[in-house]
C-alpha cells in the first residue's frame, strides 16, 4: 500500500471526497490516474455537515483542552464541575486562558524563524510519487540535520544551560501554552483561507500563483473546499507548505513539548516524575525516527492525497500540538503517580513498538530504493509488480508505470503492520500519564489515533485497489490481514 508507516497527522478523519479515489475499479489492471472518472455525487452529510462540524468544533475543543491542562487537577471531572458551576462563564474562562499574547507571538516567531533557517540546509534531492496530473514533487533531504540541531538550539538558548545569557526557561512552551494555542488557532484558520484563495488563483494579481497542476475547486462548495483544500502541493517562496507545517513545525513542536513539559513538572514539584520523563523520552525517540524517515512520510497518504486545507494544515498547526501532547501536558500539574519500575515497564513496551515501527518503515524504504533487491529478514523478498497509468503533465498522454508491492517481512504479516506498532506506542504514552490519577483524559489521543489509523488504512486500501486493480487483489490474497493479524482483515 501507499502508506509507508509514518505518523499520520491532521484533524479528525476526512469524509469521502473527490480527492480520495473511492470509485469502482476496472475489471483488471490499474486505473488511469487523472482520467475523467465521475466523482461521487454530492452528499450533504459528507460534503457539508460533517466538514462544517469539524471546522467549528475542533478549534473550540483545542481551546478547551488548553484551558483544562492549566488547572491543578486536569481531569474530566474538573471540566464537568466547572461547566456545572458556571455554564455561562465557562467560555470566558477558556478564551481568557488562551488569549494570544506578545510573548506567545515572540515564541512562535522565533520557532518558525529557526525552522525556516534549518529548512535551507543543503542535502540530497529526493522525489515523491507522481501525482494524478503528472506532478513529481522534489524535496531536499535534510530532515536529520533539522532534527538534531533544533532541540540543541532550544536547549542552548535556555536559562537552565546558558544562565543569565539564556532567553527563556525550558518550561517556556508549557508556561505560555494557552496563548500559543490560541494564536495558532486563529492564525491557522486565517492561513487555511489564504491557501484556499491561492489554490483557486485568486492571489495571482498579488504575484502569488498556484504551485502545480493538482489544484482547483472540488465543485462541492466553499465549506468543503476550505476543509479539504484547493492545492495538493502548495509552495510559498520555494518552501513546501505541507512539509514545513506537517514536519518542521508540528512534529518539532511535539518533540520539544516533551522536554518543556518535563522541565515544567520538575520546576513545580522538585522531583522527576517517571511518567512524564519516560513518556517524553519515548516520544522523542519516536520523532527522531520520524525525521530519519521524513522522505517516506512525504510519500504517504497525508501528502499524496490530502490537500492543504483545514483538515491537513490546520490539523498540523493546531490539532497536533494540542492533542498529541495532551497526555504529557496533563502530568505537569498532576504527576502520574507511577513508580519508576512500573513506568519503565510501560516505557519498554512503547519503545519496542517504536523500534518495530522503524523496522517496518526501513524495510519498505530500502525495498523500494533497491527495486526489490534488498534482503528482508535475510531472504529474497516476495513482491508483486503492479502496473498503473498516469497522465503526463507536459504531453497530456497516458504513460504506463510499475510499482512493487512488498509481501515479505512485516509487510507480509499485515498490510499495515506499522499501524499496530504505532498504536501500541500511543497507548503506552497514554497509560504512562497514570489512568488511576488522571482518569481517561490521557487516553483521548490513543483513542483518536486508533480511529484515525483504521480510517486511513481503509482509505489506503481503496486508493490502492483503484490504482493497481488485480495486482492489489492478489496482494490482499497473499497478505490477508490489514492491521492486526488474525483479527482485522
Automatic annotation (TrEMBL):
Its main location: endoplasmic reticulum. GO terms for cellular component: endoplasmic reticulum membrane. One of its GO terms (biological process) is cholesterol biosynthetic process. It comes from the Eukaryota. This is 7-dehydrocholesterol reductase. Gene3D superfamilies: 1.20.120.1630. Belongs to the ERG4/ERG24 family. Its EC number is 1.3.1.21. The keyword Lipid metabolism applies. Pfam families: ERG4_ERG24. The keyword Phosphoprotein does not apply. InterPro entries: ERG24_DHCR-like (IPR001171), Sterol_reductase_CS (IPR018083). PANTHER family: 7-DEHYDROCHOLESTEROL REDUCTASE, DELTA(14)-STEROL REDUCTASE. PROSITE patterns: STEROL_REDUCT_2. Keywords: Cholesterol biosynthesis, Cholesterol metabolism, Endoplasmic reticulum, Lipid biosynthesis, Lipid metabolism, Membrane, NADP, Oxidoreductase, Steroid biosynthesis, Steroid metabolism, Sterol biosynthesis, Sterol metabolism, Transmembrane, Transmembrane helix. One of its GO terms (molecular function) is 7-dehydrocholesterol reductase activity. Residues 1-36 are annotated as: Disordered.
Amino acid at each position: 500500500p501507499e502508506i509507508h508507516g509514518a505518523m499520520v497527522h491532521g484533524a479528525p478523519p476526512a469524509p469521502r471526497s473527490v480527492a480520495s479515489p473511492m470509485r469502482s475499479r476496472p475489471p483488471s489492471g490499474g486505473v488511469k490516474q487523472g482520467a475523467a472518472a465521475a466523482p461521487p455525487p454530492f452528499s450533504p452529510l459528507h460534503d457539508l455537515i460533517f466538514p462544517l462540524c469539524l471546522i467549528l468544533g475542533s478549534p473550540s475543543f483545542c481551546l478547551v483542552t488548553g484551558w483544562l491542562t492549566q488547572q491543578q487537577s486536569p481531569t474530566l471531572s474538573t471540566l464537568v464541575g466547572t461547566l456545572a458551576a458556571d455554564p455561562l462563564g465557562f467560555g470566558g474562562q477558556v478564551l481568557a486562558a488562551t488569549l494570544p499574547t506578545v510573548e506567545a507571538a515572540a515564541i512562535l516567531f522565533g520557532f518558525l524563524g529557526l525552522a525556516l533557517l534549518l529548512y535551507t540546509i543543503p542535502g540530497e534531492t529526493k522525489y515523491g510519487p507522481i501525482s494524478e496530473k503528472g506532478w513529481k514533487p522534489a524535496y531536499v533531504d535534510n530532515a536529520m540535520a533539522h532534527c538534531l540541531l533544533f532541540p540543541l538550539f532550544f536547549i542552548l538558548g535556555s536559562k537552565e544551560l546558558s544562565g543569565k545569557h539564556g532567553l527563556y526557561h525550558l518550561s517556556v512552551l508549557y508556561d505560555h501554552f494557552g496563548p500559543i494555542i490560541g494564536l495558532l488557532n486563529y492564525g491557522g484558520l486565517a492561513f487555511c483561507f489564504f491557501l484556499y484563495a491561492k489554490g483557486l488563483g485568486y492571489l495571482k494579481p498579488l504575484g502569488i500563483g498556484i504551485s502545480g497542476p493538482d489544484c482547483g475547486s472540488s465543485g462541492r462548495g466553499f465549506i468543503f473546499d476550505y476543509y479539504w483544500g484547493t492545492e495538493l502541493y502548495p509552495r510559498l517562496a520555494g518552501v513546501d507548505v505541507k512539509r514545513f507545517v506537517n514536519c518542521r513545525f508540528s512534529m518539532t513542536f511535539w518533540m520539544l513539548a516533551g522536554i518543556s513539559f518535563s522541565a515544567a513538572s520538575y520546576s513545580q514539584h522538585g522531583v522527576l516524575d517517571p511518567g512524564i520523563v519516560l513518556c517524553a523520552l519515548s516520544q522523542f525517540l519516536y520523532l527522531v525516527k520520524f525525521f530519519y524517515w521524513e522522505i517516506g512520510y512525504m510519500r504517504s497518504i497525508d501528502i499524496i492525497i490530502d490537500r492543504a486545507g483545514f483538515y491537513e494544515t490546520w490539523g498540523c498547526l493546531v490539532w497536533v500540538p494540542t492533542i498529541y501532547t495532551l497526555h504529557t501536558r496533563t502530568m505537569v500539574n498532576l504527576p502520574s503517580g507511577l513508580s519508576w519500575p512500573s513506568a519503565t515497564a510501560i516505557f519498554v513496551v512503547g519503545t519496542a513498538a517504536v523500534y518495530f515501527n522503524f523496522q517496518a518503515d526501513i524495510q519498505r524504504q530500502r525495498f523500494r530504493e533497491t527495486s526489490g533487491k534488498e534482503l528482508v529478514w535475510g531472504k529474497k523478498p516476495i513482491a508483486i509488480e503492479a502496473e498503473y497509468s498516469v497522465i503526463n503533465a507536459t504531453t497530456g498522454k497516458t504513460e504506463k508505470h510499475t510499482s512493487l508491492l512488498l509481501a515479505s517481512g512485516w509487510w507480509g504479516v499485515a498490510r499495515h503492520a506499522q499501524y499496530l506498532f504505532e498504536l501500541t506506542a500511543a497507548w503506552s504514552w497514554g497509560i504512562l500519564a497514570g489512568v488511576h490519577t488522571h482518569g481517561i483524559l490521557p487516553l483521548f489521543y490513543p483513542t483518536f489515533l486508533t480511529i484515525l489509523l483504521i480510517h486511513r488504512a481503509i482509505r489506503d486500501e481503496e486508493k490502492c485497489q483503484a490504482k493497481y486493480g488485480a495486482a492489489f487483489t492478489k496482494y490482499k490474497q497473499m497478505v490477508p490481514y490489514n492491521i492486526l493479524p488474525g483479527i482485522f482483515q
